[in-house]
C-alpha cells in the first residue's frame, strides 16, 4: 500500500465463513466499502469494472431503515446481496446517496452500481450476511465488521 493511502477493507481469518472489516472516514463510506468487500467475494469486480468501461453504467436503488447503525448496515448489505443474487447483477459498487437520523432511528438510500452483460463474473455464493457477526465501531475512522455465510 502506498504511503498516505487508506485501506478500504481487509479480510480476516475465520474458521468456516468469510469475515472482513471495512473502513471509512464516515459511516456512509464505511458502508460503501463494506458493500464492495462483499461484492468482491461474490463477483470478480475488477473484471466487471473493466467491462464497465465499454458499457452504460446502471444503478438499482435500495432504501432501508433501522433503529441502530448495526441493523442499518445489516439490512443494507442483505438487500444488496438479495438484489445482486435475485437479478444476477454484475455489480461492482454501492453509493450512499443519503443517510438520515431522527428519533425513530436511521434511514439510508443508496444505489447498487452495475452493468448489463451476459458474461458470468460469479466467484463464490454468499448465502447471507450474518447479523450476529456485524459490528460498527468508531474511533479515528468508522469500521464495519462483517461475517458472510458462504
Describe the model.
The two termini are 28 Å apart. The chain has helices spanning 27-42, 45-52, 69-87; strands at 9-12, 18-24, 57-66, 90-102, 105-115, 128-129, 135-138, 142-149. The strands form two sheets. Strands 1, 2, 6, 7 and 8 form a five-stranded antiparallel β-sheet that branches. A three-stranded antiparallel β-sheet has the order 3-5-4. The chain has a single domain (9-149), classed as Archease domain (Archease, Possible Chaperone, Chain: A, domain 1), CATH 3.55.10.10. The model has no long low-confidence stretch (mean pLDDT 94). Helices cover 29% and strands 39% of the residues. Helix 1 packs parallel to helix 3 (69-87). It is α+β, with helices and mostly antiparallel strands and 150 residues long. The protein has three helices and eight strands, in the order E-E-H-H-E-H-E-E-E-E-E.
Radius of gyration in whole Å, from Cα?
15 Å
CATH homologous superfamily caption? Archease domain
Count of spatially separate domains: 1
Report the helical percentage: 25-40%
Q: What is the H/E string?
A: EEHHEHEEEEE
Q: State the CATH topology.
A: Archease, Possible Chaperone, Chain: A, domain 1
**CATH class annotation:** Alpha Beta
Put simply, the count of helices is 3
Structure classification: alpha+beta
Low-confidence stretches: none
Mean pLDDT across the residues is 94
Oligomeric organization of the protein chains: single chain
Do you know the CATH architecture?
Answer: 3-Layer(bab) Sandwich
Shape assignment: globular
How many β-strand stretches?
Answer: 8
Provide the β-strand percentage band: 35-45%
Sheet bearing the most strands, described? Answer: 5 strands, antiparallel
Span of the ends, CA to CA? 28 Å
Amino acid at each position: 500500500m502506498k504511503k498516505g493511502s487508506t485501506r478500504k477493507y481487509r479480510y480476516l481469518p475465520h474458521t468456516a465463513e468469510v469475515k472482513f472489516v471495512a473502513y471509512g472516514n464516515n459511516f456512509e463510506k464505511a458502508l460503501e466499502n463494506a458493500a464492495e468487500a462483499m461484492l468482491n467475494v461474490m463477483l470478480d469486480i475488477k473484471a466487471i469494472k473493466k467491462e464497465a468501461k465499454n458499457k452504460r453504467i446502471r444503478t438499482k436503488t435500495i432504501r432501508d431503515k433501522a433503529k441502530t447503525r448495526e441493523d442499518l448496515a445489516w439490512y443494507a448489505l442483505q438487500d444488496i446481496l438479495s438484489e445482486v443474487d435475485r437479478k444476477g447483477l454484475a455489480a461492482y459498487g454501492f453509493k450512499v446517496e443519503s443517510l438520515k437520523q431522527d428519533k425513530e432511528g436511521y434511514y439510508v438510500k443508496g444505489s447498487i452500481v452495475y452493468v448489463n452483460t451476459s458474461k458470468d463474473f460469479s466467484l463464490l455464493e454468499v448465502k447471507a450476511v450474518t447479523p450476529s457477526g456485524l459490528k460498527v465501531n468508531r474511533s479515528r475512522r468508522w469500521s464495519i465488521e462483517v461475517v458472510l455465510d458462504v
